[in-house]
Design brief:
The protein is of the alpha+beta class and 653 residues long. The chain has 17 helices and 14 strands. It is rod-shaped. The two termini are 79 Å apart.
Length: 653
């Protein structure tokens, strides 16, 4: 935006006009509420004064009889550092429960009708007073005396002109409530702003909210003590006196706010100035308690005014530079608030810290007499309105950024959701293909194992039957040769041939039983019981058996392995150990089957597995199980542990 041109500054003029209008309206309304009633009942022009030689208030002290002078511009005691007397006429006044309301007096005594009516000396109580907000209320006898005498002592200080009014006790309280009740209202608003800003700082850790809270707290303290009603509620002079030291701390908060609101390009000088002001504020607070009054008044005089003017100039330069670079909402409202706050603070500094100079200014500018005493709180309240406008603007910008971020986030979420949906479809398709492939693989593997098993059984049948038939042929040829020479031996050879044929036939039956294709109807328990009964009938051995009800989810391969293990165990026991008794059990555990075959006969000596046992061990391992052979007492123990309920892929792996 162009830097020149009146129209470019219209937004600033408009905001400044609104703030000034509010300031004038509030000041006028407060002046109407706090108008001094009966102000002309005690006209200063009718007062007289005289020098005092004794400033101590005591019943023996009496006003002088001579030496009284008329109050005039060229003859008044107000700017003297010595004690003096005032004689104030009370003729013609009609007030119920009369009292003298005395302002701008440090140490004083009130005499009437030749006796002491009231006395106050802050030094006697170890107190310090702020004459801007401290007052004395001296009760008067009724009926009123014709005149009263005031003994005043400035205690080597230059105090403002005393203000004495005749008031009624009840009317006085009503006047204070009408005049100063709004101060507590503004103080409550400042206190609410303090807690609100503190909460924001706790959440966001933004220094703008921290300094806003500091300035609000200073404003709350100023509002609560910068009124006459506060002394009526709590007569503690230190409360209003410490306000003299709180003001520099508020200036520090004000400068810190400006340092945060505007960029670093415009606040280099402010960053150094704020620490100087903070140091001065700390010295002022300590001096309010421990410094001599004369030194403290000097500290609050020209050094404070000079620091205030320098700070105001630097702040104005920084804000104006920021305003010219960017005439946005923040710079416009902060610049307008600065103008109002600086003007009000300057009036406050002159009236509070340079009362003699302000009294001269009031004579030349009568409008200053109508300003409310707590105009600083009003100016600070208007400035906080500007600051709240800046904070609202920042929250608005943050809200827009959050909306943009939210829209971007929703777009990203929608995009990501679409991607995930596509990925899900791809995974479903891949899973379907994988399931189909696994099914085909399982079927192929199962067919391969069945084929291998058939080949093994075929080879077994071929080898067994071939061997049996070969042996039978040999026996028959021998019997044929011996038939003529030794019929009895030939008969034995024929019996042996018959036994070989029967044994081969039994082996063919056993092999055929394992090669049945109807595996779904294959009852393992029934097949094992049949095998046991056939073995007992054919060989004459006894076989004790216990078989638990088997689970329904046993696979064909698991059934075949279990059956072949029983068959191989019985055959090996008969063939190698000459067993006569077997004990067999097949127990169902939570996740595995426990196979155990115990045989008597010769004790088993651990050795390398033969072809049959090695093949059976490999089949058990392929199904995830284990096989172990150990010596018995005597005999042999064959044990298998075979898991069940696994997926086809695990079972076939």
């Amino acid at each position: 935006m162009a830097r020149g041109g009146f129209t470019n500054h219209l937004p600033l003029m408009r905001v400044l006009g609104i703030l000034l209008g509010l300031l004038v309206f509030i000041a006028w309304a407060l002046f109407q509420l706090g108008r001094h009633y009966d102000r002309d009942s005690l006209k200063p022009a009718l007062w007289q004064w005289a020098s005092a030689t004794d400033s101590f208030a005591s019943p023996s002290t009496a006003p002088p009889q001579t030496g009284w002078l008329t109050i005039a511009e060229d003859s008044d005691p107000y700017h003297s550092r010595q004690a003096y007397w005032l004689r104030i006429p009370l003729r013609g006044a009609d007030v119920r429960e009369p009292e003298l309301w005395i302002l701008n007096a440090t140490t004083l005594s009130v005499f009437g009708e030749g006796k002491l009516l009231y006395a106050y000396d802050p030094a006697a109580n170890g107190e310090r007073v702020n004459l801007n907000y401290h007052w004395n209320l001296a009760p008067l006898p009724s009926p009123l005396p014709a005149e009263v005498y005031l003994l005043l002592d400035n205690r080597n200080g230059l105090n403002p002109e005393p203000d004495v009014q005749l008031v009624g006790k009840g009317d006085f309280l009503v006047h204070l409530i009408q005049k100063d009740l709004y101060c507590f209202l503004i103080g409550g608003l400042f206190l609410f702003s303090f807690f609100f800003a503190t909460g924001l700082y706790t959440i966001r850790r933004d220094r703008l909210h921290l300094y806003f809270a500091m300035l609000s707290l200073c404003g709350a303290y100023e509002s609560f003590v910068q009124n006459y009603l506060m002394q009526w509620l709590w007569d503690q002079p230190w409360l209003s006196y410490m306000e003299l030291g709180i003001f520099p701390l508020g200036v520090f908060g004000f400068i810190s706010l400006m340092n945060v609101v505007f960029g670093e390009d415009h606040t280099r000088a402010l960053r150094k100035l704020r620490w100087i002001v903070l140091g001065f504020a700390i010295v002022t607070l300590m001096g309010a308690v421990w410094m001599k009054i004369a030194w403290f008044e000097w500290l609050l005089g020209y050094p404070l005014l000079l620091l205030f003017l320098v700070a105001a100039g630097i702040i104005l330069r920084s804000i104006w530079s920021a305003y010219q670079d960017r005439q946005g909402i923040e710079s416009i409202w902060m610049l307008a608030g600065f103008f109002v706050m600086t003007a009000v603070a300057l009036v406050h500094v002159l009236r509070t810290y340079l009362p003699a100079f302000f009294n001269v200014a009031k004579r030349n500018i009568p409008l200053l007499n109508n300003l409310p005493f707590d105009i600083l709180s009003i100016g600070l309240f208007l400035f906080l309105i500007c600051l709240i406008r800046v904070i609202i603007h920042r929250f608005g910008k943050m809200n827009e950024q959050l909306k943009a971020f939210n829209a971007s986030l929703e777009l990203n979420v929608a995009k990501r959701t679409s991607e995930l949906r596509d990925k899900g479809l791809e995974l479903q398709q891949a899973n379907a293909r994988l399931a189909h492939t696994m099914k085909e693989t399982a079927e192929a593997f199962a067919s391969t194992m069945v084929l291998e098993e058939r080949n093994r059984l075929t080879g077994t049948i071929h080898d067994t039957i071939g061997h049996s038939l070969t042996a039978t042929i040999v026996q028959l040829e021998a019997a044929k040769r011996l038939l003529a020479r030794d019929p009895r031996l030939a008969e034995n050879k024929l019996d042996a041939s018959q036994e070989l044929v029967l044994r081969g036939l039994e082996q063919i039956r056993q092999s055929a039983r394992l090669m049945r294709d109807d595996t779904t109807q294959y009852d393992l328990q029934e097949a094992m019981v049949s095998l046991i009964e056939e073995s007992e009938n054919a060989t004459g051995v006894s076989i004790e058996h216990r078989i638990d009800p088997l689970p329904d989810n046993l696979t064909t391969l698991q059934k075949r392995v279990l059956f072949q293990a029983l068959q191989e165990g019985i055959t090996n026991g008969l063939k190698h150990s000459r067993c006569q008794h077997f004990r067999f059990s097949l127990r169902v555990g939570p996740s595995a089957l426990a196979f155990k075959l115990i045989s008597d006969g010769r004790t088993y000596a651990p050795s390398a597995f033969g072809f049959g046992l090695q093949a059976m061990s490999e089949r058990v391992a392929n199904l995830g199980g284990t096989m172990a052979i150990s010596p018995g007492q005597p005999g042999c123990i064959l044990e298998l542990s075979l898991p069940y309920g696994l997926s086809d892929r695990r079972a076939l792996s």
